[in-house]
Design a protein that fits this description.
The protein is α/β, with parallel strands linked by helices. The protein has 2 domains: about 1-55 and about 345-435, Immunoglobulin-like; about 60-345, Glycosidases (TIM Barrel), CATH 3.20.20. The protein contains 10 helices and 19 strands. Strands 1, 2, 11, 12, 13, 14, 15, 16, 17, 18 and 19 form an 11-stranded mixed sheet that branches. Strands 7-6-5-4-3-10-9-8 form an 8-stranded parallel sheet.
Length: about 425
C-alpha cells in the first residue's frame, strides 16, 4: 500500500496536475474533467481501496423495539425497517428485550417474528433478571444473587429456546443491559468481578444461542476486561457488546476483545432526541458515527436505539415526523444497511483522502461497496481506486438535503488504473456499488 501511494505522489508531482475542483454544483455526478486532468492518471488524494485487505466481518445494522407495548410495530413498519425494496431501509438486526412477564414477552416475540420473516437476525438483551433472583427482590436496581447465577443462566437459555420454538430463533443473547450504570428504571447492577464470575462459571449453560457480554453504557473496557482476561470466561462469550453514550471516538477501539477473537457489536445509541430526525445536516452525523464505529472501532454491528421514533429511522408522528415514514436518519442508515449485508467484510480504504471526506469500503456477494461522506458545504471531487477490480462501473446512491437514497447514473471505472472520479455533493453521503 505504501508503494502504491508513493507512485501516486510521484506521478502527481511530475505532471503537476491540479486535482481539486471548485465546482459548486450541488448535484452529484461524474466529475466534469477540466483540462489538463486526465482520467487515466492517479490523483494524490485518491482513496485507494484494497478488497484483498480485510479488516473485519460485518454482522449487520439494526435497531430496537424494546418496551414498545402500547403501540407495537406492524407489518408495514417492519417492511420499512427491514425490507430491501425501494423506500425501505434494509436493516438486518432487531434488538429485543428479554422480558420477565408474559405479555411483554409476547409483544417482543411478535416483533421478532415480523423481522425474522424479512431476513433479520434477532438479538435479545435483559434489562433485569426476574425479581426473585435479585438481592432487592425488585426489577429496578439491585444485583443478581450469587446463589441465583445458575438459575439465571438457565433462564437466558430457556428464553432462547422459547424464541426458537416460536419461530424467531436468536442470533445472540446478552447478559445485561448497562449493568455499569445505575438508573431508576428496570435494571441490574454488575461489577466487573461479577461479570467475570457469572460468565466463567455458568456461561457454558447458555447453549441455545451465541452469548453477548454485558453491554456497558459507554463500552467501558474495565467492565469486561476481567472477563476477557480469564481463559474460561472468555471461552464462554462469543460477542463483546457495548453502547457509546458519551464515549469519545478515540475510545471506540477495544484491542483486548479483538485479540481474544471476539466480534465487537455496538448495540445501542442515538445521537440526540431533542429535535426531529428529519433535520439536515444533523442526520448526516449518524452516518459519520456509523463510519467511525466501522473504521475506528472495527465493530461488526451497529444497532441504533428505537427503530420507530421521531429521532429514529421511521417516524412515529411526533416532532414533525410522519407516522411510519422513513426519516432522514433512516435514509442515511440505508446508505450502509441496504448495501452492506451480513457476511460482508470491511476492506481497507484510505478513510480520509481529503478534508471533510470520509470513506469506508466493503465487499461481499462479488461486489465492492464504497460509502463516502462529504461533511463540507462545498462539492468535493474525489477519485476512488478499487485495486484489482473486474468491475467496469459503479452505481451511486445519494442522500442529502434534497435526496433520499436516490440512484444516479452509473459511472465507468477506468480500467487502466481501476479508478473512477465523482463529485460528492455538499453535506451528503454517497454509496457506490460495483456492477
Amino acid at each position: 500500500m505504501r508503494e502504491i501511494k508513493q507512485v501516486i505522489t510521484i506521478i502527481f508531482v511530475i505532471l503537476n496536475i491540479n486535482c481539486s475542483s471548485n465546482d459548486t454544483n450541488e448535484v452529484g455526478g461524474p466529475t466534469p474533467l477540466p483540462d489538463p486532468v486526465d482520467p487515466t492518471v492517479l490523483q494524490s488524494d485518491a482513496s485507494i481501496i484494497t478488497p484483498t485487505d480485510v479488516e473485519q466481518d460485518i454482522s449487520g445494522f439494526g435497531a430496537a423495539t424494546v418496551f414498545r407495548l402500547d403501540n407495537p410495530l406492524g407489518a408495514s413498519d417492519m417492511d420499512k425497517l427491514f425490507g430491501t425494496d425501494e423506500g425501505q431501509i434494509g436493516l438486518s438486526i432487531l434488538r429485543i428485550r428479554v422480558a420477565t412477564d408474559d405479555f411483554s414477552r409476547s409483544v417482543e416475540l411478535e416483533h421478532a417474528k415480523l423481522a425474522a420473516a424479512r431476513g433479520a437476525k434477532i438479538m435479545a438483551t435483559p434489562w433485569s433478571p426476574p425479581a426473585e433472583m435479585k438481592t432487592n427482590n425488585d426489577l429496578v436496581s439491585g444485583s443478581l444473587k450469587p446463589d441465583s447465577y445458575e438459575d439465571y443462566a438457565n433462564y437466558l437459555n430457556d428464553f432462547a429456546a422459547y424464541m426458537e420454538v416460536n419461530g424467531a430463533a436468536l442470533e445472540a443473547i446478552g447478559i445485561q443491559n448497562e449493568g455499569d450504570y445505575q438508573v431508576s428504571y428496570e435494571s441490574c447492577d454488575w461489577t466487573a468481578a461479577q461479570v467475570r464470575d457469572f460468565v466463567r462459571d455458568y456461561g457454558q449453560l447458555i447453549t441455545n444461542t451465541k452469548v453477548i457480554s454485558p453491554e456497558s453504557f459507554q463500552f467501558r473496557h474495565e467492565h469486561t476486561d476481567l472477563m476477557l482476561n480469564d481463559t474460561q470466561a472468555a471461552a464462554n462469550v462469543d460477542i463483546v457488546g457495548g453502547h457509546i453514550y458519551g464515549t469519545q471516538v478515540q475510545d471506540y477501539p477495544y484491542p483486548l476483545a479483538l485479540e481474544k477473537g471476539k466480534e465487537l457489536w455496538m448495540t445501542e445509541h442515538y445521537t440526540t432526541s431533542d429535535r426531529s430526525a428529519n433535520l439536515w445536516p444533523d442526520a448526516l452525523l449518524v452516518g459519520k458515527e456509523i463510519h467511525n464505529c466501522m473504521v475506528i472501532g472495527q465493530y461488526s454491528a451497529y444497532i441504533w436505539w428505537y427503530g420507530k421514533r421521531y429521532y429514529g429511522f421511521i417516524g412515529d408522528g411526533e416532532e414533525g415526523t410522519g407516522n411510519g415514514i422513513v426519516t432522514k436518519r433512516g435514509y442515511v442508515m440505508a446508505n450502509f444497511s441496504k448495501f452492506i449485508r451480513p457476511s460482508y467484510k470491511r476492506i481497507d480504504a484510505d478513510e480520509n483522502p481529503q478534508t471533510d471526506v470520509s470513506v469506508s469500503a466493503y465487499s461481499g456477494e462479488g461486489k465492492t461497496v464504497v460509502v463516502a461522506i462529504n461533511e463540507s458545504d462545498q462539492t468535493k471531487e474525489q477519485q476512488f481506486v478499487i485495486t484489482g477490480t473486474n468491475s467496469t462501473s459503479v452505481t451511486p446512491y445519494i442522500t442529502s438535503a434534497s435526496k433520499n437514497l436516490e440512484v444516479q447514473e452509473a459511472v465507468d471505472i477506468e480500467s487502466s488504473i481501476d479508478a473512477f472520479l465523482y463529485v460528492l455533493p455538499p453535506n451528503s453521503i454517497t454509496t457506490f456499488v460495483t456492477d
